């Protein structure tokens, strides 16, 4: 609990971000370099899909981050509503555009992969459709943040919406699966072991680690920017208040 | 209980007498369905095939049209503040208002649907199931719309924002509602499994949505 409390102070958080960001950036660069090298030069082409299988090394890790980011937002929403943690709302706000971007990457790479594999850029396949709905939920969150000017209310409103979405996402997923299934079933995380060859699995996991580290890095930087933005806003408000007092 | 019933009566009467609120929703429903054949061509077989989906999508849009009014008028004139100091807990209050929206909008739209179904060449024997699925599904529509209405309370262009927030959440309702009717029109399979899922969605949103709406009302009120 102690680290949570000490991190509750935005000042300490900013100091921490300052020390972490350079190291994390270096880690992201190394992981991405190794991961991309493995993906494009070492991994063998698939016996059926040929070279297009390499899209997977971008597509699948982006999907992990896209989903994981919503989990981060949902946890931050609980932090906002239950504990009123000052950084939780900042974390939720900073995560939404990042999650939307990764979801967009999943959709674009998915449709580029779909063209050679399924013969069309977009099919209303269950998993792709669920991701599209997730993208719409992210857009809704961003729109709500932008529509409400007062940060306190915006934070709580977005937290409620995020939790409503978190309850709805499994239901949407289930209903869409029920509606149509064409996508290949889960093939990495299965109880009887992955069905992907290790030669493809290693680059996939390196890329996964790279994308997760990239998400953490982007999230920390976005949170720092949001904290600073709020400080500027507070300073401007006191300035205006002083000016008003001076005039009166 | 009597306080809840009084509030329900008041809200429904206000909705009926507000002048145009229900009429506009019904008219919007009619217009959306009526212009569809102009976009798709007058092929009756095609229209019959897409009729369940068309009727459900148009119903969602028509219901959303009046959704931002659920709390808006009472918020503007201060009635909402008075009501929150009254005997009703806030979630019950929010639930009653959503229920009033269902009675004043969901039910009339569901009852109009078979008439519009005729325009789209929906087979007659699918009509009872169409009305039934809509009567059972529209509570979920109204209660989830209540969450959106409370989140966007007092914002500019709240109607548009409401639609953006809420429409993705309607995907399950739409899927199971359309599946129920389609199963009756073209098959394959029985209409009852999706129908029961629709019931489950409505029951779950009747229980959960008022809690979320109440929390959102509190954030709007300070």
Please give the structural blueprint.
The complex is a heterodimer of chains A (248) and B (222).
Chain A: H1 2-7, H2 10-42, H3 56-83, H4 86-118, H5 126-147, H6 151-179, H7 198-247
Chain B: H1 2-17, H2 21-40, H3 44-65, H4 69-76, H5 79-84, H6 90-119, H7 127-151, H8 158-166, H9 171-185, H10 192-221
Helix pairs in contact in B: 1-6, 2-3, 2-6, 3-6, 3-7, 3-9, 6-7, 6-10, 7-8, 7-9, 7-10, 9-10
Mean pLDDT of chain B: 88
- Radius of gyration based on Cα positions of chain A: 21 Å
The count of DSSP E runs of length 2 or more, i.e. the number of strands of chain B, is 0
Radius of gyration of chain B: 18 Å
Distance between the termini of chain A: 48 Å
From the spread of the alpha carbons, the general shape of chain A counts as globular
Count the strands of chain A?
A: 0
- How much strand content do the residues of chain A show? under 5%
Please give the share of residues in helix of chain A.
over 70%
Helix content of chain B: over 70%
The arrangement of helices and strands of chain B along the chain is: HHHHHHHHHH
How many structural domains are formed by the residues of chain B? 1
Structural class of chain A: mainly alpha
Q: Counting H and I runs of at least 4 residues, what is the number of helices of chain A? A: 7
Let me know the largest β-sheet of chain A. none
Q: How many domain units of chain A?
A: 1
């Amino acid at each position: 609990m102690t680290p949570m409390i000490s991190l509750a102070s935005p000042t300490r958080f900013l100091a921490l971000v300052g020390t972490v960001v350079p190291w994390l950036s270096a880690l992201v660069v190394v992981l991405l370099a190794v991961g991309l090298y493995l993906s494009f030069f070492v991994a063998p082409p698939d016996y059926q899909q040929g070279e297009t299988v390499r899209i997977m090394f971008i597509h699948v890790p982006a999907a992990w981050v896209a989903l994981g980011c919503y989990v981060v937002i949902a946890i931050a929403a609980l932090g906002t509503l239950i504990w009123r943690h000052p950084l939780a709302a900042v974390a939720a706000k900073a995560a939404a555009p990042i999650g939307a971007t990764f979801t967009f990457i999943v959709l674009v790479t998915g449709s580029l992969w779909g063209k050679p594999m399924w013969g069309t850029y977009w099919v209303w396949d269950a998993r792709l459709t669920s991701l599209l709905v997730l993208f719409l939920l992210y857009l809704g969150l961003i729109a709500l943040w932008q529509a409400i000017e007062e940060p306190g209310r915006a934070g709580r409103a977005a937290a409620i919406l995020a939790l409503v979405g978190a309850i709805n996402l499994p239901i949407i997923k289930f209903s869409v699966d029920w509606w149509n299934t064409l996508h290949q079933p889960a093939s990495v995380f299965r109880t009887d072991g992955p069905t992907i060859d290790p030669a493809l699995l290693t680059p996939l996991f390196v890329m996964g680690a790279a994308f997760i580290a990239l998400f953490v890095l982007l999230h920390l930087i976005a949170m720092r920017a949001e904290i600073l933005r709020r400080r500027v806003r507070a300073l401007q408000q006191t300035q205006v208040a002083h000016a008003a007092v001076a005039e009166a | 209980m009597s306080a809840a019933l009084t509030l329900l009566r008041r809200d429904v009467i206000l909705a009926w007498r507000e002048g145009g609120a229900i009429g506009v929703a019904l008219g919007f429903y009619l217009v959306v369905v009526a212009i569809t054949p102009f976009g798709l061509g007058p092929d009756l077989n095609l229209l019959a095939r897409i009729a369940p989906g068309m009727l459900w999508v148009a119903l969602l849009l028509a219901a959303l049209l009046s959704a931002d009014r659920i709390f808006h008028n009472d918020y503007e004139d201060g009635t909402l503040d008075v009501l929150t100091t009254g005997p009703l807990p806030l979630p019950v209050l929010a639930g009653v208002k959503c229920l009033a929206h269902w009675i004043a909008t969901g039910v009339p739209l569901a009852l109009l649907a078979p008439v519009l179904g005729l325009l789209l060449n929906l087979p007659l024997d699918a009509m009872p199931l169409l009305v039934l699925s809509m009567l059972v599904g529209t509570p979920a529509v109204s209660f989830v719309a209540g969450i959106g209405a409370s989140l966007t309370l007092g914002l500019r262009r709240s109607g548009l924002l409401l639609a953006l927030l809420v429409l993705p959440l309607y995907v399950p309702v739409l899927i199971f509602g359309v599946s129920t009717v389609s199963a009756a029109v073209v098959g394959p399979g029985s209409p009852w499994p999706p129908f029961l899922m629709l019931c489950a969605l409505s029951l779950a949103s009747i229980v959960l949505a008022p809690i979320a709406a109440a929390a959102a009302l509190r954030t709007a009120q300070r």
